[in-house]
Write a structure and sequence with these properties.
By secondary structure, this protein is α/β, with parallel strands linked by helices. The chain has five domains: about 240 residues, 5'-nuclease (Rossmann fold); about 190 residues, Nucleotidyltransferase, domain 5, CATH 3.30.420; about 100 residues, Up-down Bundle (Taq DNA Polymerase, Chain T, domain 4), CATH 1.20.1060.10; about 110 residues, Alpha-Beta Plaits, CATH 3.30.70.370; about 130 residues, 5' to 3' exonuclease, C-terminal subdomain (DNA polymerase, domain 1, Orthogonal Bundle), CATH 1.10.150.20. About 50% of the residues lie in helices and about 10% in strands. The chain has 36 helices and 22 strands. The strands form six sheets. The protein has a six-stranded mixed sheet with strand order 3-2-1-4-5-6. It has a six-stranded mixed sheet with strand order 7-10-9-8-11-12, sandwiched between helices. It has a four-stranded antiparallel sheet with strand order 20-21-17-22. It is globular and about 90 Å long. It starts with 8 loop residues before the first strand and ends with a helix.
Length: about 900
């Protein structure tokens, strides 16, 4: 939502605010030892909300004490929730008092939850034709979304309307109750269908629309998950009832009677002073408020300064002071800024552009900040009607180029890789040293929060930034930056540079106190920024003709399959219609019925078709049709749309600050998700090609996570197997099954491989049994034998869990941390999930560190090699290159040496290298 949108009714989920603030804020205390972190977080969110919706009728709702009607329905409801933390309880009453002093209606209704009160008020507003905004972080509230009701999360600054609910959850708002009933809720102890996660729930509701229809057709669901669904039929209606928000709670007042009252400034001042929120108190004092001040009419919420933020007690929060932002429009005005930047130890830099696509983006302006609170915006590309004179883009480029290409300069930015890529469009080769606040935040705590500037400013500076949608609007009518009035664009852009400098300074101080993390940033993440930039701009050459031909081939095959299906059926029918298909298979063709739906009709579920396909042609044909149809829509039709017209290449964006373990991710397109093992996936990879006269080289680490496990556990059996160059899966099979390596069968090797990788990912005996198609007793026996043969692995896992519980995090070989907030959780499911993560994260994270170190080494080597070769892609543990055909041997030798030398483990790192004309051949 934009800050200038006026919403008639805003309903605040105060209980959601309380818990989110408590867990998000550092443990603040005033001088008397009273905890104040949650108070400060809630009040700050209320201040932000009051500013953003100054003309709205804001109503705050909290949970009342005591049980609710849901406890009467189900005695175990929320039974496993831990008691309220001791330092949260005393913060509740001050929060209530501050909200009342603000003049806002505050409701707590016994016997129901805050959700039910909010649902009732939203229903009242809708009945009166009033638009309603619900401010919450509770996913259950998505069921209330309608054309008149939206959700806003003030901590993540995200807004959900009906379309947004579908985008986030995959189902419509009216399906959310059924979705929640299927998935269940471990926190509230609501039983769902065991093993049915969000993807399964979306799949079922897409196919059956409602829970009732799904339950009626439960026999159509095949496999173990189908059995679990049928076993859950008795209690699913209860789960549905527990997740349904009431819309008819009896309230003492109607919505019409809940108008804001005058703000009691004296009470606010007294509360702020008692809690030692000095900056907020000082603003009121400066406005002439005293203990004897009279309440002020509530035309807007008072005592809520938009700039000055209270000084924190804890060292984990920085502050934002008064802002001094300017805009310059001539080179003469810009000159002093450039000189000051050149003389500064560090300055912040940011670009404003026309697009998030770095290859197509045009520069609209830049912002600079040398000293916190003082920043400048320099426009060069605003072209709306009536736009004022600005420095020309070529003149601005020429003016900033010396600074950015000076290796002695130190420049901080937020996601500087994007800026580097955009400026490369104007022949600027960035050489200044980089301080990237986004990457710094990620290294300090990859799981703490989102790492975009707005979220970081809120989390660390306790400051609400101006959002892009605030000045550009949203949806189809959203303006690009060149269309935004400079008077609005200037403060927004200058604030970006100012906040970035503050964040970078703060994070630099934090890293200085953590040498291991500082080393991760300085030796891995920071140098990787330029490597990724070069790789992104190089891109991957993709042959749209090959993809088009594949689409045509698949399209023709789909037509053929339709025709063959009609011939087998003896008539034309809709291949997607289960009703028509059932009639064809069982009534017309007389195929034996193996399963029935709850209504007694023959099932046409996919698992049934797979079983029938072993003996009958039509089910086999239908399965092929479905598979090819998905491949065409997802890959062969879509990938050509990602090709840049100017370069003929796909230019993905690699993300350093997304995956918690340190792995890179990519988008537009997501290279990590291109199919690998299927023949269809290999066909997609055939479209990734190289220029004429060159070949593609793919270099892939062999079993890197197992090698890291051997190194970390120091298990002699694993160390010896890798040192001897053995097939580790065969070696494991020989140990587990008590045979020689030569006697290991293919089935035994397959089982050993499942154990090797399964244990790394925390697979249980039940999961292993399911994967191998054996009994749970057999899988438990396999695991027992494994640990008996590799006791070092068992010892490592036990020690890792104990260390994680003691210090709250685990580390990679290079010191990267992954924090585990649930490692001591009283909820067994959450705790066990954290324990599995504790075991896996050091291996995944170390593998990520190694591939990143390898990329840096390879990039440095390529720059000095004299070869006409470029690194084009990184996917999982694989690096992809293009090189002149005559230089392939030199490239292979250099890449293999650099990658295998990227880390020193107790076992050798092995890199498998392939060469070909396309990715499929090289892989």
């Amino acid at each position: 939502m934009t800050t200038n949108v006026s919403t008639p009714v805003v309903l605040v989920d105060g209980s959601s605010y309380l818990f989110r603030a408590y867990h998000a804020m550092p443990p603040l205390n005033n001088s008397k030892g009273m905890p104040t972190g949650a108070i400060k977080g809630v009040v700050n969110m209320m201040r932000s909300l009051a500013r953003d919706y100054a003309n709205a009728n804001i109503v705050v709702v909290f949970d009342a004490k005591g049980p609710t009607f849901r406890n009467e329905m189900y005695a175990e409801y929320k039974a496993h929730r831990p008691p309220m933390p001791d330092d949260m309880r005393p913060q509740i009453e001050p929060i209530h008092n501050i909200i009342r002093a603000m003049g806002l209606p505050l409701l707590m209704v016994s016997g129901v939850e805050a959700d039910d009160v909010i649902g009732t008020l939203a229903a009242q507003a809708t009945a009166q034709g009033i638009d309603t905004l619900i401010s919450t972080g509770d996913k259950d509230m998505a069921q209330l979304v309608s054309p008149h009701v939206g959700l806003v999360n003030t901590m993540t600054n995200t807004y959900l309307n009906e379309e947004g609910v579908v985008g986030k959850f995959g189902v419509r708002p009216d399906q959310i109750i059924d979705y929640l009933a299927i998935v269940g809720d471990t926190a509230d102890n609501i039983p769902g269908v065991p093993g049915a996660g969000p993807k399964t729930a979306v799949k079922w509701l897409t196919a059956y629309d409602t829970l009732e229809v799904l339950m009626e057709n439960a026999d159509e669901i095949g496999g173990k998950i189908g059995e679990k669904l049928r076993n859950a039929l008795d209690f699913l209606p209860l789960s549905q009832a527990l997740t349904t928000i009431k819309l008819d709670v009896e309230l003492e007042q109607t919505l019409d009677q809940m108008a804001p009252k005058p703000v009691d400034q004296a009470a606010l001042l007294a509360l702020y002073e008692e809690l030692e929120f000095r900056s907020w108190a000082n603003v009121l004092i400066q406005d002439g408020v005293t203990a004897s001040s009279q309440p002020k009419e509530a035309d807007s919420i008072q005592g809520l300064p938009s700039v000055t933020i209270d000084a924190p007690v804890a060292p984990s929060v920085a502050t934002v002071a008064t802002k001094n932002y300017t805009t310059v429009s001539t080179l003469t005005e810009l000159e002093p800024w450039l000189k000051a930047c050149a003389d500064a130890a560090v300055f912040a830099f940011d670009t404003e552009t026309t697009s998030v696509n770095y290859m197509d983006a045009q520069l609209v302006g830049i912002s600079l900040c040398i000293e916190a609170g003082t920043a400048v915006y320099v426009p060069c590309g605003h072209d709306y009607v009536g736009a004022p004179e600005q420095i020309s883009r070529p003149d601005l480029i020429a003016a900033i180029k010396p600074l950015l290409e000076d290796p002695s300069q130190v420049i901080c930015g937020q996601n500087l890789k994007y800026d580097i890529n955009v400026l490369a469009n104007y022949d600027i080769t960035w050489q200044a040293k980089i301080i990237d606040s986004m990457v710094q935040s990620y290294v300090l705590n990859s799981t703490a929060s989102r790492h975009n500037m707005d979220a970081l400013a809120q989390h660390y500076l306790d400051y609400q930034t101006v959002k892009f949608v605030d000045i550009a609007g949203k949806g189809a009518k959203q303006l690009t930056f060149n269309q935004i009035d400079i008077e609005q664009a200037g403060p927004y852009a200058a604030e970006d540079a100012d906040i970035t400098l503050r964040l970078a300074q703060y994070f630099s101080t934090c890293l200085a106190q953590e040498p291991a993390l500082a080393d991760v940033y300085e030796t891995i993440e920071r140098p990787l920024i330029n490597v990724l930039s070069r790789m992104e701009r190089t891109g991957a050459l993709v042959d749209a003709k090959v993809l088009g031909e594949q689409s045509q081939v698949i399209g023709k095959r789909l037509v053929e399959l339709e025709r063959e299906a009609y011939e087998l059926a003896g008539e034309v029918f809709n291949l997607a219609s289960t009703q028509q298909l059932g009639a064809i298979l069982y009534e017309k063709l007389g195929i034996p019925v193996t399963k029935k739906t709850p209504k007694g009709k023959p099932s046409t579920a996919e698992a049934v078709l797979q079983e029938l396909a072993q003996n009958y042609e039509l089910p086999k044909l239908l399965l092929e049709y479905r598979s090819l149809s998905k491949l065409k829509s997802t890959y062969t039709d879509k990938l050509p749309l990602e090709i840049n017209r100017a370069t003929g290449r796909i230019h993905t964006s690699y993300h350093q600050a997304v995956a918690a373990t340190g792995r890179l991710s990519s988008s537009d397109p997501n290279l990590q998700n291109i199919p690998i093992r299927s023949s269809e996936g290999r066909q997609i990879r055939q479209a990734f090609v190289v220029p004429k006269g060159q070949v593609m080289v793919a270099a892939d680490y062999s079993q890197i996570e197992l090698r890291i496990m051997a190194h970390l556990s120091k298990d002699e059996g694993l160390l010896n197997a890798f040192a001897a160059g053995q097939d580790v899966h065969k070696a494991t099979a020989a140990e587990v099954f008590g045979v020689t390596v030569d006697q290991v069968t293919s089935d035994q090797r397959r089982s050993a491989k499942a154990i090797n990788f399964g244990l790394i990912y925390g697979m249980s005996a039940f999961g292993l049994a399911k994967q191998l198609g054996i009994t749970r007793g057999q899988s438990q026996d396999y695991i027992g034998r494994y640990f008996a043969r590799y006791p070092g692995v068992q010892e490592y896992m036990d020690q890792t869990k104990a260390t994680a519980a003691q210090q709250g995090f685990v580390e990679t070989l290079y010191g990267r941390r992954l924090y585990l907030p649930d490692i001591k959780a009283s909820n067994g499911i959450a705790r066990q999930a954290s324990e599995r993560t504790a075991i896996n994260a050091p291996m995944q994270g170390t593998a990520a560190d190694i591939i990143k170190r390898a990329m840096i080494k390879v990039d440095e080597w390529l720059a000095s090699s004299g070869l006409n070769a470029r690194m084009t892609m990184q996917v999982h543990d694989e690096l992809i290159f293009e090189v002149d055909s005559a230089q392939v041997d030199a490239l292979v030798a250099g890449v293999k040496s650099a990658m295998e030398g990227a880390s020193e483990l107790l076992v050798p790192l092995i890199v498998d290298v392939g060469v070909g004309e396309n990715w499929d051949q090289a892989h």
